[in-house]
Amino acid sequence: MKIKVGTIILLVITAVITAVILELGKNAISDWLIAGSLFIVFIALYINSLYDKPWLWRTAGWIAFLIILFGVVKFLAPPFKQIPAVDIRNPKATEVVTIAQGQLTGVYNEDESVEVYTGIPYAKPPVGELRWKEPVEPDGWEGVRVCDHFAPMSMQAQNSPIYDSLLSIFGFHNFKISLNDNFREPVSEDSLYLNIWKPAGDVSNLPVLVYIHGGSLMTGQPSYSEYRGEDLAKKGIIVVNFGYRLGVFGYFANEELAAESPNGTTGNYGLLDQIQALKWVQQNISAFGGDPKQVTIAGESAGASSVNALCVSPLSTGLFVRAIAESSGITAREPYHTFRSFDDALKMGQDIMDEFGVKSIDELRKIDASKLVGTKYQNSAMTLDGYAITEQPYLTYEKGENHEEALLNGFNVHEADIFNMAVKVNEDNYAETLKKQLGDYAGEATALFPAEPQEKAYKYIIDAGGDAKGSYNRVMSAIWFTYSHYKWSNYLKEQGRPVYEYYFTKDNKSLGSNHAGELPYAYGNLWRHAWLYDEKDVKLSEAMTEYWVNFVKTGDPNGDGLPRWQQFAEDDTKVFELGENIGMIDEPYLKLYEVIDKYQQSK
């Protein structure tokens, strides 16, 4: 008996579609076996029962098979699995380390040059009655705790695995067919854990870099490969990162919560987590060979805004000495994002209470986290709560009461592009579209940056486009991201403190110089997706990691064999380019900053 060619072709097409769905969906091997079994059963039934039946019977059989197959595939889902600390099987365990809470071990990386400790609690789980309360010191434990997996990432809305895979293919270009990633990373309210990378062996008094991840204060996780600390640790520093409460769990504000707090605070729980993590570092990092007096805080995007907030918070006094901020800040008189008034925070808090139909915080605390995370309101901003942040951040800088003794900060060329894809901007609506950000000064901005389309290398199929889209993206990059760095650098210059400002311009096969494009370069992680980068990328990354590490060690990024990075105070019309060229160039937005200044001062 021969199966018709058309039937074979249809089976192959169906099998290919099924395989693509399972691979993009990160389904486990068991799910592939289930799907394969359905194919085998159908083929057997087709040969034995349907082959010689009228076409109507065969068609009905095919329809039934497809309904069952894709119904089962839709029901199948990859398992949740915590991310291992290192990407090798059966890594060697470290010696036992003793901290205030108890004893623990980590694991070595592949060449045993770095010890990695993941999932160390720095606060009690903020669940139940501790939801929306200041972080509490963690409990101790008996025996030796094995710290070889990242803790679940903080509670946040999650995309489907297929969406994430498509984003990886068409956005980051780093998708790889593999049997080692057939799982999802878990999320949990119980996420207040930190991770440490240190040089292997007996070390002492090493400088410490504490990194705060970005994600609009709504998403993100410390396990992300592009800012892991393994390569920086090889250069003689200790790297720490951690999870903190996000979204409605981290930045929800409510008057009842403020009243029940001994400090009268609400709306900044994620920021308070960050401060608690820094306190933990002060108390325990010496056990790993770190110097608590030489801590530098760093962050990108919302992590950089958080760094800025930590620099002005009275609660973080003495917890760090230097700061690195990439692609965000809150130094404007009225920050454009990640910061809001207390009244706005309270109003959104009430909107959320109404959304869930509750009258008290006790009722809201009883709602399951998986439902609460689905709120339609974006809690993506810190607030002036009078405790963690006591005044508009720029006022603290004007008084010179900020904490950082030195600053390395900067921005990328295409910061705003990926946030503006849904906006179509032509010459005739260019100025009008900018009015929300610049009011009556929008016309001055369009005169400085006349209408031009988007650069070819940064055009995307899903972008709405327009003949002024390129210029609009440049202006919005300055408004949303670079302006805050210019103000921040100027404040430190006026205070006589060292500040170094960069401009990342490197194109590549991944994010290029879009928002977050500098991360794998600065933290030495190009090798994790090596096929996306060439020798020029590797050379730039080697330079950037040296600059970052030198700054962590001394407060000055410069070192032997590196192009000299001038302090901002030497010439504030220049910025340090990090790209095909490494060196000082003219700051591209100076005239635009004057326009933004006028708008800010008019409010």
Q: What does this 3D model show about the protein?
A:
This protein has three domains: 5-75, no CATH class; 97-158 and 186-391, Rossmann fold, CATH 3.40.50; 411-602, Alpha/Beta hydrolase fold, catalytic domain (Rossmann fold). The chain is α/β, with parallel strands linked by helices and 603 residues long. It has helices at 5-24, 29-50, 55-75, 161-172, 230-233, 247-251, 255-260, 269-284, 302-312, 342-355, 361-365, 369-372, 393-399, 430-438, 442-448, 469-495, 519-522, 535-554, 590-602; strands spanning 97-99, 102-105, 107-108, 114-121, 144-146, 153-154, 187-188, 193-199, 206-212, 238-242, 290-300, 322-326, 339-340, 382-383, 406-412, 499-504, 574-578, 582-586. The radius of gyration is 26 Å and the shape is globular. The protein has 19 helices and 18 strands.
Note poorly predicted spans.
none
Domain tally: 3
Outline = globular
Strands of the largest sheet, in order across it?
Answer: 3-4-8-10-9-11-12-15-16-17-18
The appropriate CATH architecture of the largest domain is 3-Layer(aba) Sandwich
- State the name of the first-level CATH class of the largest domain: Alpha Beta
